Amino acid sequence: RLKTMYSHLLQATLSSLKMLDVGKWPIFSLCSEEELQLIRQACVFGSAGNEVLYTTVNDEIFVLGTNCCGCLGLGDVQSTIEPRRLDSLSGKKIASFSYGSGPHIVLATTEGEVFTWGHNAYSQLGNGTTNHGLVPCQISTNLSNKQVIEVACGSYHSLVLTSDGEVFAWGYNNSGQVGSGSTVNQPIPRRVTGCLQNKVVVTIACGQMCCMAVVDTGEVYVWGYNGNGQLGLGSSGNQPTPCRLAALQGIRVQRVACGYAHTLVLTDEGQVYAWGANSYGQLGTGNKSNQSYPTPVTVEKDRIIEIAACHSTHTSAAKTQGGHVYMWGQCRGQSVILPHLTHFSCTDDVFACFATPAVSWRLLSVEPDDHLTVAESLKREFDNPDTADLKFLVDGKYIYAHKVLLKIRCEHFRSSLEDNEDDIVEMSEFSYPVYRAFLEYLYTDSISLSPEEAVGLLDLATFYRENRLKKLCQQTIKQGICEENAIALLSAAVKYDAQDLEEFCFRFCINHLTVVTQTSGFAEMDHDLLKNFISKASRVGAFKN
Q1: 366, 13 in Cβ contact below 8 A?
Q2: Could you tell me which residue ranges the BTB domain spans (predicted)?
Q3: Into how many domains does the chain fold?
Q4: Which of 122, 355, 454, 516 could disulfide-link to 172, CB 3.0 to 4.6 Å?
Q5: 510 is a domain residue
Q6: 179-204: per-residue pLDDT in tens?
Q7: Quick check: is 2 in a domain?
């Protein structure tokens, strides 16, 4: 019983979720169809896109893949071709997730805690050591009273954003990417200050060896490696502390995305600017020349609502308000120098199919959808006395319905309710379960009945000339046929002129002839039907030795 309740609960949860479509990521072909249906969040990472972490509808976390440097967090360096549950994070809900090139992992929970594991040669785990982390370790130094809401990783450094708009960084610092003013590696979280000191940061991003922060006024602050002009400062010198991006003066930036050595920003007016490395056309400017200043990218006349890039690839993508998805840069070995319209519906699919490696640019996520469609709303109103304007009295019980819906959905009711002012209709021709199933079908387009009750509904469907319902009843009967009820179902098929079903039941009886002829149904079979059955059975050779 508990198992059934759990199954119903799961189905209810699944129906309130738009299923997360991960089918374009090759590594997910290792998961069964049942496992894929339960996935709620996922991130594909690693130097070849061969590792994945995902969460399920019941908040369990699973990992799969090659497990380089223990980046699956399982406590060992064994690869796994089957999903393994990450028990050490049991009950934790993921708010933000990022990964480096080692790879190392930085994860923020919905409670604002930070966990790290994986590669740690440059102290990028923030635990004060340079030992690889085989299991998730909570990082609380300098973060103990903070709630982290977003995380970002460069190749070997880590960046987090707190709910009060502060930024903390740690790890590899050869180019000033930790923002401390030096080039010494940073073993524990350190607040990034300088000209960010009194600013409220709203979103962050990391390139391979640089950092970006957008503040609440829409200004962008940059620091770290700048050899390809990826900081957008008009120069190629590294920046060991945050510096305001003056070239975007007067433009309010909403989002920033960093590729390996290029940067994209999205403004509040839906415009995209790009700068940095361009050897694969990843700036989308129509050439392969690096740009050290922000350059507008022309995607189409429509507003852009999303930009996508990832520190381990040279690929760029964007989505328009109209739902068009464009890609440019390195796309499966080709250099695409202008935004190219794809057939995808989301930017994630660009990275699954065209990025090298095929890794996620963000945590793929599907949220519960509270919006009810018209069909879902109608389903909920069936047999609801609060909104109904018509009652059917069947076998002494009421079934509540809505005249307008019945007229729209059924020819019979369109005529029978036309001038009918009554709000109660008595029904004696059909049983309560059958008539209720019929009315429910008009609200839901589906039926859930036993094969025996479906026979009664088949009678009703024939009477009301509801051909689609007739087909559904036949399907239900076919699925529920067994030796005991085969003759009764055959009789019903003949009675209601359901030829396809009659043929099916007849074949079933012939294939199970010995058992069927010993049932009570066969013994009580109608004389004419029995004669017909024997005649037909002999014609198909049922009685040959």
Answers
A1: no
A2: 388-451
A3: 4
A4: 122
A5: yes
A6: 999 999 999 999 999 999 999 999 99
A7: no
